[in-house]
Amino acid sequence: MSRVGKNPIPLPAGVQVDIKGNFVKVAGPKGELQRHLHAEMIIEAGDGELVVKRPSESKQHKSLHGLTRTLLANMVEGVSRGFARDLEMEGVEYKAELKGKTLVMSLGYSHQIRYNPMAGVTVEVPDPKKITVKGIDKQKVGQVAAEIRAFRPPEPYKGKGIRYKDEHVRRKAGKAAVGTGL
């Protein structure tokens, strides 16, 4: 058995699951998500939990077992609690602000960068050096955060750029430090 796939998914209060073949719809207090899963995976709704089973012990079914369970668990967590990804800006004059739903960033370029997040994802700017991406779909939240980070990824010499809150940027020594034997 897959160590991930065999675990049941507990359903919090207020979350409803509708299963029709390989189409799953999960609704909760934060919203509704729906997804087509692999047709051969067996999804059963029991008393307050979801269980994913595989039809055989083939390599493909083993790999799909854990994936299907994780996708369902992310849907349940998204509609009940939601997902958030925090970004930090490091650098002089790097700042962000929200104008309507558009994120406007000054990142050291000759122009400001305007970014409109995809539907279902909200962007918040609690302070000019911090950006928070929130939503119920984990994949969309991660994609929007990665797109924002890609405008100015952190560089290893001075550490300037946009980074995830928990990201560690490995710093390099510059030419002067290497030449003096430090």
Q: Into how many domains do the coordinates divide?
A: 2
Give the spatial strand order of the biggest sheet: 11-12-7-13
Which stretches of 5+ consecutive residues score pLDDT under 50? none
CATH topology of the largest domain: Outer Surface Protein A, domain 3
Strand content is 35-45%
What's the alpha carbon Rg, rounded to whole Å?
21 Å
Please tag this protein with its features.
elongated, Outer Surface Protein A, domain 3, alpha+beta, 2 domains, three-stranded antiparallel sheet, 182 residues, four-stranded antiparallel sheet
Concise structural overview:
This protein is α+β, with helices and mostly antiparallel strands and 182 residues long.
Task: Tell me what the structure shows.
This protein is an alpha+beta fold. It folds into two domains: 9-80, Ribosomal protein L6 (Outer Surface Protein A, domain 3, Alpha-Beta Complex), CATH 3.90.930.12; 83-164, Alpha-Beta Complex (Outer Surface Protein A, domain 3). The chain is 22% helix and 36% strand. The protein is built from three helices and 13 strands; from the N terminus they run ββββββαββββββαβα. The protein has helices at 59-80, 138-150, 175-179, and strands spanning 9-10, 16-20, 23-28, 31-36, 42-45, 49-53, 83-90, 95-99, 102-106, 113-115, 121-127, 130-135, 161-164. It has a four-stranded antiparallel sheet with strand order 11-12-7-13, with helices on one face. Strand 8 and strand 9 form a beta hairpin. The longest helix is centred in the middle third of the chain and has 22 residues, at 59-80. The chain is elongated, with a radius of gyration of 21 Å. It starts with 8 loop residues before the first strand and ends with a helix. The model has no long low-confidence stretch (mean pLDDT 91).
